[in-house]
Amino acid sequence: MINKRLVVIGGGAAGFFCAINAAKLFPALEIKLIEKSNKLLSKVKISGGGRCNVTHNAPDLIYMSKHYPRGQHFVKKAFSRFFVPDTIEWFRERGVTLKAEADGRMFPDTDSSQTIIDCLLKEADKYRVKIDMSTAVTALTQAGNGWKVSLQDGSVLEADFVCVAAGGYAQADKFSWLQATGHKIVTPLPSLFTFNMPGNPITELMGVSVPEAHIKIAGTKLQEKGPLLITHWGMSGPGVLRLSAWGARDLAQMQYNFTAIVNWLPAFNENSLLEEMKELRFSMGGQKMHTKNPFGLPQRLWQFLLLQSGLPEEVRWADAPAKDVNKLVKQLVVMECTVKGKTTYKEEFVTCGGIQLSEIDPATMESKLAPNLYFAGEVMDVDGVTGGFNFQHAWTSGWIAANSISSKQG
Description:
about 400 residues, alpha+beta, five-stranded parallel beta sheet, about 25% strand
C-alpha cells in the first residue's frame, strides 16, 4: 500500500498545528511541511513581547467571535469544533500550562514563547513530520484528486492533500499562485498598526500611557476604548491597535490621513467635565494646577495638556482664565490629532484580506472549489484584534484541517 502524502505550506502556528495533529490522527500519512523562509514559527517567537500570547480567555463563542473585524461568522462556526478550552487542554497534555492575565490574554506559565516553539517542534519530531526550509512554492496544480506542488528550485512534490497555511501577504500579487487554483483573493491590507503624528508635540511624551482612553476617527463611526501609549512617532497601545483593525479598509481608503479624536477621560464629556471644573476651582482654588492632578492622569501628560491650553506652571485653580479652562476641557475630552501615515506594530504584521471565505467550508477548512485543498490561518480573509485572537484562529483552523484530512483515511 502506498502511503498518502500531505504537504503543508507554511511553517507558522497554523501550519505546524495542522501537520502535527494530522500526523497523530493519521499515522500512515507522510507529512511534509515547507517554509519559504529560513525561520520556523517566527510570529510565535515575537508575539506578546517574546512571551507568546497563545489565546484569549474568552467566556464563550459569541464573545470571542466579536473580536474579528473580518470573519466573525466563519470563526464562530469553526470555534464550535475547537475552542479556547481545547487549546488549553492540548498544550496541557504536552506539559505546557497556560495562565490568563486580567485583560484576558493567555501566556505560557514560563512567560517565554520558546516554550510554545519547543512544544510544537517536539511534537513534529515525535510524529516524524518532515520539514523543508527556504523552500518557496511557485504553483499548485490539480492532478486527479491530488495535487502537484511546484517549488522554486524546479522540483515538483506530488500530494494527496495540501494545506495552505502561508500566512498573510502584504501585496495581492503574492497570492497569484493561489488565484491560479480558481480562488478569489480579497485585497490584502495592513490590519494592526499604530498612528503616526508627525510634528505633534505630544510625541515628546513617548513612553507615557493611560489605562483607558476613548479614540474615534473623525467623520466615521469608528471608535474604540482601551489602553493608549504615546510613542516617538504618535500613538499606539491596545486601543489604537483595535481601532486600526476595525478600520483597516476605511483608513486605507483615506490613505492613512485622518483626524483621531482622543478622550483621555472617557467617564466625561465636554459638558460634564466643565461642571467638574467648576467644582474643582471652588474646592482646590488655592492650589497650583500643575502640582495637583485630580483625574489620575500621568503627571507628564497632565502638565503637557495644561501648557497646550495656555495654563502656565504657576497658575492656581481659582485664577485660571475661563477661556483657558475651556481649552483644557477640549484637550482632555476632544483632543484632535492629525494622523499622517501608519507604522506596523512591532514585528507583529497582520493583514486583512486573503482567500475569500465563501469558498472555504468552516467545518472542514476544505476548499469548496477544489477537493483535498485546505486552508489554515491568516491566508484566509480572517483577522482578529490584538490579544491572542489571531493565534486561536490559527490553532482552530489547523486542527480542523488536520481532522478533516484524517477522516479521509483509506
